[in-house]
Amino acid sequence: MRSLWTGAISFGLVNIPVKLYSGSESHALNLDMLHAKDLSPIRFARVCRHDGKEVPWEDIVKGYEYRKDDYIVLTKDDLDKAAPVRQDTLDIVAFADESEVEPVYFDKPYYLEPGKGAGKVYALLCQALAESGKVAITQYVLRNREHLGCIRAQGDLLVMLQMRFADEIRDTSGLKLPKQTKVTKAEMQLAQQLITQLTKPFDPTEYKDTYKDEVERIIEEKAAGKKPTAAAAPKKAEVKDLMAALKKSLEQGKSSKPAAGKRTADKAANKAPGKTTDKVAVKEAAEPGTRKRGNLYLVHDSSKTRDSGTATAAVKHKNARKKAPAKKAARKRA
Fold this sequence. Notes:
- By secondary structure, the chain is of the alpha+beta class.
- It is built from six helices and 16 strands.
- The chain has helices at 76-82, 119-132, 185-197, 210-223, 242-256, 261-271, and strands at 5-11, 14-22, 32-33, 43-48, 62-67, 70-74, 89-97, 106-114, 134-142, 145-154, 157-163, 280-281, 291-293, 296-301, 313-314, 316-317.
- The longest helix is centred in the last third of the chain and has 15 residues, at 242-256.
């Protein structure tokens, strides 16, 4: 892994040198943008609104539009002056009980690795957090933005969860929620039984991105010259009688044996039609066109290789192999 940032955890008179690594990665399929007419690649160009010419990166500066068509240019030095201390420190501003931090505030995970000679104090903080059940609330600057973070112990590792500030959480007062809804004791008992029946240890490896798998299956079918088939749509349940629905759910749960859920899911995945191990390169799709950014227009140019952006979806398929599902031999009738 490559570190994104090098600095130190700071609280009181204690400094712990650390390196910051991203704790997540995307495996989303990528769709290239192509010109629908001839399937040539599309790119976005940085075009000036004033003269209509493309602008090279070295001639581009950042600015804030403080009123219509009037901009204040901000240089790197200007941005550095906004938070000179927190550019290279994770400042712990408080400790809190882990249960007090609502999940809605969590945004993205990062791993913290101790720097040279910081192993003991790193381990001390990690063990202290684990034994106390506390998390460290930190503020820091990353990529010219100030962030809120929550550092917690995960075994021998310190994990920092990037958080949203309070003003980034949307107010729920506009939602139409049920108020003072009467629930019978029998309904509550059935609901609790259903929850108990479906309760099992959380194993994140059981859950897959089935949409990505289905898109890969469609790619394989089209690459093999076949007409792609639609994925099976889940049945929509209409709740007319709550008690009847709860009872039916309990009966289905008993017959399906949820404890064997992982084996069932794995078995179903192995039998999924069009499953592929081939590598497929695709890039995210969107509508082609012109976008405005500041004083620039972003337009597509089909005569050159794509820089960034998205448009008409197309597929690059390498080493496609035609895969025919195994046919079971017909049993002879006696």
